[in-house]
Amino acid sequence: MHLVYRFFIRTLMCLSLIMLAGANVTSFSFAQEQKKAPPAVPVKAAPVVKKTVRDQISLIGTTKPIRESVVASEVSGLVEAFYVKAGDFVTRGTPLAMLGSTGALLRLKGAMAARGGIRARRVLAEKELQRVSNLKSTNSVAERQYDEAFYNHSALENELLKNAADIEQLEYEISKKNVQAPFSGFVAQEHIQVGEWVAAGGPVVTLVDMNRILITVDVPETYMVGIKSKSNVRVAIKSLGKSPISANVSAILPKGEPNARTFPVHIELPNSDFKIKSGMAVAVTFSVGEKRTVKLLPKDAIVTSGNQRMVFAINDGKVVPVPVKVTGYYDSDAAIEGDLEPDPPVVVRGHERLRPGQSVNVVAQ
Fold it and tell me: Looking at the whole model, is its pTM more than 0.70?
């Protein structure tokens, strides 16, 4: 019995040693495996593409309204009411100011009364002319008497026409006592106040149309040859924090600044939300020069180390550093030269944790 017990104890000890040794071997193998194959790093990638481009220049322009007008009064008068203030948005036909019209109304009343008297005299002159004409047909009246009746009737006809013109002029003048907005826009400046006298042609408000924006860029003559009307440009207004948008050249003015050797170029932009204000700085990118084919990749793919630039190309799930030379920028892309073909994608996000030969897992392209 004692021998059996000792044999059982020895057997248990042997089994324990075997299991411990197996566990150590497994742990060592796992650690070695982990050391040999670190986990793949998640990255975002993008392809390298070949594209035909032109050189680009970026110049600073200034915004201003597509229309700006000093709204004037067509007639003179005392300002009885002023309905707007600087900063207000008004639509076309909105009343801006009302001028006193009492004097014009009184003159209109007198002209209309005079019209009744002229019409009565014309009726008498017409009857007299008819009577004299009948007598003349029978040679019963002198030629001079007929002429007097004829010219008297003609004079009253002309007087009635002049009276009608006077009435129409007074009615027009009264209608213009109500100064209205000629187009929709913002009141940029007030020029009158209630109680002031406004002469005919005097300013009332400065009105600006901000529904579209006009950008003026002074372009050096060196680049003017490569810029045509309707040429596509990229426009960025940094103060608004918006991404660059596409636009077209609307006009190239033929007269430049002789001292600076620059020529004004106009670009129009829609501005239905009125976020773009007059006087803002705008970066406008023009395409100039001859077309050429280059290799493009996202600017974010380039890694800078001192004076060296490189990208991480992905080949069979692993990254390979490739030195490159940047030859230009085109919006969010960079043109590069180097031993890099369009086929393998390059890392755009996540390259700060990469080492040559490291495995990667592309999560997006």
Answer: no
